[in-house]
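Hello again, I could really use a second opinion on something today. I've been staring at a protein lately and its backbone has me curious. Please have a think about how the structure follows from the sequence. I owe you a coffee for this, so here goes:
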Amino acid sequence: MKKFINTIQDIWKIEELRNKIILTLGLMVVYRLAAQVTLPGIDGGQLTNLANKTSDNNLLGLLNAFTGGAFAQASVMALGIMPYISASIVVQLMGIAVPYLQKLQKEGESGRKKINQITRWLTIGILLIQAPAYIASLPSLGIPESAFLLGRGPLFWFSSILLLTTGTVFAMWLGERITDKGIGNGISLLIMIGIIARLPSTFIQEFGSRVSQSNGGILMILIEIILWLVAILACVFLVTAVRRIAVQYARRTVAGNVQDAAGARQYIPLKLNSSGVMPIIFAQALMFVPQLLSSAENNTLKSIGIAFQDMFGLWYNIVFAILIIVFSYFYTAITIPTNKMADDLKRSGGFLPGIRPGKETADYLDTVLSRITLPGSIFLALLAVLPAFIVKAGVQPGWAIFYGGTSLLIMVGVAIDTIQQINSHLLNRHYDGLMKTGTNRKSVA
């Protein structure tokens, strides 16, 4: 503990890092405060039914978790940052088939700025669809007509669509400011802070149900906390696990001079889970489709739709796990360019021992990537459906979603990424990182 405190003191000594952390925390507080502002014209005291509709045993509850409860509060931030995430996914997928986007990807920083601008405009386009859909669904989600203080006329529709769009654009701007001026990935941090915002209340509810109802008491709470920590360790393993491919360089160029470096080895780190949480996000998007069948007139289709409404149900999780495995392969294939990796390696004078440069290297990397993606995708699928098993063990749904799935993976992934950025600042200033001791490093003159 003393070493950890010393490391915190070292962080505070570095003015640049201190300012970045303060700015990041300040912007996250602004985001959370904005999420509490209800849309004008809606009585915030009559949103109980909406909160019940977005309970944690359905997909609306998951959307509510990602927005930190703003969805259930009919807030100006009700759509959160998710439209921007959707636009980013669409642009990334279009980059495979659209030559113009492929050209921008090769133009470096200038191309990245143009792609970001395209993503922003696409986000607004998505908002112009999602915002009216959200407003139109409010009565069906349980908000009574009396809650609309000024009625639901054209003025209400126009102002609400404008505010929902502005809210997401503002959240997008906050995320970009955090990325540019703060510490960590801003968009990911905003999603994480929304998820974490609901963690204390759900844990208190679980604690109350165990203690007040004599449902296991403190002992069960301790067991649940231990299992939660084990799930966190499993997520850390999944996020950080890599397969290192040895690379050997015949010669290397240093400061304009060619130096012999025969026998020098480096490694290509291929991640066990190269696709991150994207397969879960893709799979969850598709899991909305069967729910549309619940309103069908055909009894068979209606029963299928009802069966898929419970995100902790058997068939939901079987299909969900299969989709995650399929999308893991799909997303890894489109985001890890093994051919480009092999070409870059060949141009830099590197080679894999025993493998010919060029096509054979690309085929070898593709084979290794395919082999490690299988256990990685299965592990990811198991973590994604783990909350369903936790619920069957008697844990409340609100607390169970923190045992796996997108929520836990996002929290762990974002935390590791942020710590790594803090570590890089500390090491550059001759301090040990958060994962090491808190003593000063001696700089070499």
The radius of gyration is 25 Å. DSSP finds 19 helices and three strands in the chain.
